[in-house]
Amino acid sequence: FKQKTAYEMQRGLVGSEMCIRDRNKEEFIKYGGHALSKKVVDRIFAEVPRKFKTKDKMGYDDFIWFMLSEENKSTNRSIEYWFSILVLDTNGIIGPHEMEYFYEEQVHRLESLNREPILFADILCLSLIHH
Question: What spatial distance separates the first Cα and last Cα of the chain, rounded to whole Å?
Fold first, then answer.
Protein backbone atom coordinates (compact mmCIF):
# COMPACT_ATOMS: atom_id res chain seq x y z
CA PHE A 1 0.00 0.00 0.00
CA LYS A 2 1.12 3.53 -0.63
CA GLN A 3 2.31 5.58 2.32
CA LYS A 4 0.03 8.46 1.27
CA THR A 5 -3.04 6.21 1.51
CA ALA A 6 -2.05 5.02 4.99
CA TYR A 7 -1.35 8.58 6.12
CA GLU A 8 -4.70 9.89 4.86
CA MET A 9 -6.52 7.01 6.51
CA GLN A 10 -4.67 7.42 9.78
CA ARG A 11 -5.39 11.17 9.80
CA GLY A 12 -9.10 10.49 9.28
CA LEU A 13 -9.21 7.84 12.01
CA VAL A 14 -7.45 9.80 14.76
CA GLY A 15 -9.78 9.77 17.72
CA SER A 16 -12.15 7.36 16.00
CA GLU A 17 -13.56 4.72 18.34
CA MET A 18 -13.11 2.09 15.60
CA CYS A 19 -9.40 2.79 15.49
CA ILE A 20 -8.50 3.02 19.18
CA ARG A 21 -9.38 -0.40 20.54
CA ASP A 22 -9.76 -4.03 19.61
CA ARG A 23 -13.20 -4.87 18.34
CA ASN A 24 -15.25 -8.03 18.27
CA LYS A 25 -17.56 -9.18 15.47
CA GLU A 26 -20.68 -7.61 17.02
CA GLU A 27 -18.98 -4.21 17.13
CA PHE A 28 -17.33 -4.51 13.74
CA ILE A 29 -20.55 -5.37 11.88
CA LYS A 30 -21.63 -1.77 12.54
CA TYR A 31 -18.69 -0.49 10.47
CA GLY A 32 -19.73 2.04 7.85
CA GLY A 33 -23.37 1.98 8.96
CA HIS A 34 -23.59 -1.79 8.45
CA ALA A 35 -22.03 -1.48 4.98
CA LEU A 36 -20.60 -5.00 5.10
CA SER A 37 -22.85 -8.02 5.01
CA LYS A 38 -22.90 -10.44 7.94
CA LYS A 39 -21.46 -13.15 5.70
CA VAL A 40 -18.48 -10.96 4.78
CA VAL A 41 -17.91 -10.03 8.43
CA ASP A 42 -18.13 -13.73 9.35
CA ARG A 43 -15.39 -14.50 6.80
CA ILE A 44 -13.21 -11.67 8.11
CA PHE A 45 -13.62 -12.91 11.69
CA ALA A 46 -12.97 -16.48 10.59
CA GLU A 47 -9.60 -14.94 9.75
CA VAL A 48 -9.83 -16.03 6.12
CA PRO A 49 -8.12 -13.01 4.56
CA ARG A 50 -5.66 -12.46 7.41
CA LYS A 51 -4.95 -14.05 10.79
CA PHE A 52 -5.72 -11.74 13.72
CA LYS A 53 -3.02 -10.93 16.24
CA THR A 54 -5.57 -11.20 19.07
CA LYS A 55 -7.85 -14.24 19.34
CA ASP A 56 -11.48 -13.50 18.36
CA LYS A 57 -10.85 -9.74 18.15
CA MET A 58 -9.74 -7.45 15.39
CA GLY A 59 -6.81 -5.49 16.76
CA TYR A 60 -5.42 -2.17 15.59
CA ASP A 61 -3.04 -3.77 13.04
CA ASP A 62 -5.83 -5.98 11.72
CA PHE A 63 -8.19 -3.01 11.41
CA ILE A 64 -5.61 -0.94 9.55
CA TRP A 65 -5.03 -3.86 7.15
CA PHE A 66 -8.80 -4.06 6.59
CA MET A 67 -9.08 -0.30 6.11
CA LEU A 68 -6.28 -0.23 3.55
CA SER A 69 -8.01 -3.03 1.67
CA GLU A 70 -11.36 -1.28 1.95
CA GLU A 71 -10.19 2.19 0.93
CA ASN A 72 -8.09 1.28 -2.11
CA LYS A 73 -9.43 -1.82 -3.81
CA SER A 74 -7.11 -1.47 -6.80
CA THR A 75 -3.93 -2.74 -5.12
CA ASN A 76 -2.84 -6.37 -5.39
CA ARG A 77 -3.01 -6.81 -1.61
CA SER A 78 -6.53 -5.45 -1.50
CA ILE A 79 -7.65 -7.64 -4.38
CA GLU A 80 -6.15 -10.68 -2.62
CA TYR A 81 -7.86 -9.69 0.66
CA TRP A 82 -11.36 -9.44 -0.88
CA PHE A 83 -10.85 -12.37 -3.25
CA SER A 84 -10.01 -14.64 -0.31
CA ILE A 85 -13.23 -13.57 1.40
CA LEU A 86 -15.34 -14.38 -1.65
CA VAL A 87 -13.81 -17.75 -2.60
CA LEU A 88 -15.52 -20.36 -0.42
CA ASP A 89 -13.78 -23.48 -1.65
CA THR A 90 -10.25 -24.37 -2.67
CA ASN A 91 -10.61 -24.06 -6.45
CA GLY A 92 -9.51 -20.40 -6.50
CA ILE A 93 -12.50 -19.31 -8.61
CA ILE A 94 -15.43 -17.11 -7.67
CA GLY A 95 -18.18 -19.22 -9.22
CA PRO A 96 -21.97 -19.12 -9.23
CA HIS A 97 -22.09 -20.89 -5.84
CA GLU A 98 -20.07 -18.12 -4.15
CA MET A 99 -21.95 -15.36 -5.94
CA GLU A 100 -25.32 -16.76 -4.88
CA TYR A 101 -24.13 -17.33 -1.29
CA PHE A 102 -23.27 -13.65 -0.85
CA TYR A 103 -26.20 -12.39 -2.93
CA GLU A 104 -28.77 -14.16 -0.71
CA GLU A 105 -28.10 -11.70 2.07
CA GLN A 106 -28.47 -8.74 -0.28
CA VAL A 107 -31.89 -10.06 -1.31
CA HIS A 108 -32.99 -9.97 2.35
CA ARG A 109 -31.65 -6.43 2.72
CA LEU A 110 -33.55 -5.28 -0.37
CA GLU A 111 -36.76 -6.96 0.79
CA SER A 112 -36.47 -5.34 4.21
CA LEU A 113 -36.33 -1.97 2.40
CA ASN A 114 -39.44 -2.91 0.38
CA ARG A 115 -37.37 -3.13 -2.80
CA GLU A 116 -37.89 -5.84 -5.35
CA PRO A 117 -34.66 -7.80 -5.73
CA ILE A 118 -33.40 -9.09 -9.06
CA LEU A 119 -33.42 -12.87 -9.26
CA PHE A 120 -29.95 -14.37 -8.96
CA ALA A 121 -30.49 -16.39 -12.15
CA ASP A 122 -31.02 -13.11 -14.04
CA ILE A 123 -27.84 -11.62 -12.58
CA LEU A 124 -25.89 -14.74 -13.46
CA CYS A 125 -27.28 -14.67 -16.98
CA LEU A 126 -26.26 -11.02 -17.42
CA SER A 127 -22.83 -11.80 -16.03
CA LEU A 128 -22.32 -14.61 -18.53
CA ILE A 129 -23.50 -12.47 -21.45
CA HIS A 130 -20.94 -9.76 -20.69
CA HIS A 131 -18.02 -12.19 -20.54
Answer: 30
Which pLDDT tens digit goes with each residue over 34-87? 899 999 999 999 999 999 988 889 998 899 899 999 989 999 999 999 999 999
Per-residue CA distances from 41 to 44, 86, 95 (Å):
5, 11, 20
Distance CA 105, CA 44 (A): 16
Which residues pair with residue 54 across a beta bridge? 57
Neighbours of 65 (CB within 10 A): 19
HEC sequence for the chain: CCHHHHHHHHHHHCCCHHHHCCECHHHHCCHHHHCCCHHHHHHHHCCCCCCCCECCEECHHHHHHHHHHHHCCCCHHHHHHHHHHHCCCCCCCCCHHHHHHHHHHHHHHHHHCCCCCCCHHHHHHHHHHCC
Cβ count within 10 A of residue 85: 21
- Statement: the pTM of the whole predicted model exceeds 0.85: no
